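User: quick one, fold this
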Amino acid sequence: MSIREHGAGSAIELGAAIVGVPGHDFAQRSQVFADALANAQTSRQIPGGLMVVFDGTLGNPATTFFGLMKAELHEGFIKTNDLQAQFVNDLFLSPKTKLYKIGLFVSDGVNPRPALPGGWRAVVYDSAMTASQRDNAATYFYSNFLGLDIPRNAAQQVKKFFEETKSFIKGANLPPNEKVDLYNGLYSYLKLDRGNTIQTSVFAQTYMQGDLSDDYLQHMRQLRFPTEAIAKDIGELTGVLKWRKLRFPRAITLVGPPDAVRDLVTVDTVDGERGAKWTQITIRGELQSQE
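Assistant:
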C-alpha cells in the first residue's frame, strides 16, 4: 500500500511515536487509535469490534514494526469448568473466522530516520481483498483510518473503467439502440483502438455528446477514477472483451466478436403489437448455418 496521510495525527505518525514505548505508557498512548477507528466508521452498517495495537521486530538484523488490527466480534459457545456450554457473543480471533483487518507499518531500520513517510512501508490484510478484486476491501479501514491508498495497477484500473462505464451506460436514460452504440464504442475503445492508453475524457469526446458526456465525466469523478491517461493493460478483461452479447427475452442471445457486431449489426427499437416495443436487428450478411 502507498502511504497517503503522514502528517500530525495520522496513523503512521502516531504509531511511529509509540514504537518501543514501555508497556503502561504504550497502552495509554495507543487508546487514540480506538477513537480514530470509531471516527472512520461513518456508517451504522459497519460492524463493531476490538482495536488491537501492537509492535515488535522482525528479520535479521531486526527492524521495528507496529500493527493496528480491527477484530470483529462474533457469536459462539465456550465450555465451562462444569462441562456446560455457555453462549457468548463477544468471541474474536478464533481459528474459524476471518473477521479481522490488519495494517502493518514496517521500518527499514535506517537511522537517523528520514521524514515521514520515508523509512516505512505499509501492508494491509483484509479477507475481502484479493490481487484480482480489490474493490471489496473496507475503504474505511485502509483509507479513512490508516491513511493508505491501493497502488495503481493498470490492469485493475482498466477493468474498473470498463465496469463503471458499462454501469453508467446501463443506467443512462437513452433508447436501446443508442445504448448499443455506446457499448460497441466501449468494446472498440478497449479492444480495437490501437492507442496505448485510455482516458475518460477521450472516451467521452469520441463516443458521447453534450450533456451525456458531462454526466459521464461527473460520474467517473465521483468514483475518484483518475482523469489522466492510464496504460491500456487489458489483461484482466481478455475473456470479457472476446465476445459481444445482446440478450433478449426467453434466452435469445446474439453473440459475436465486438468488431463484427459493430460493423455488421444494426439494432433498432420499433413499435410492436398492442403498444409493445420490439427490437429489429439487421445483419449485413446471409444466414450461413443453423442448428
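User: anything notable?
Assistant: The first strand starts at residue 2 and ends at 3.
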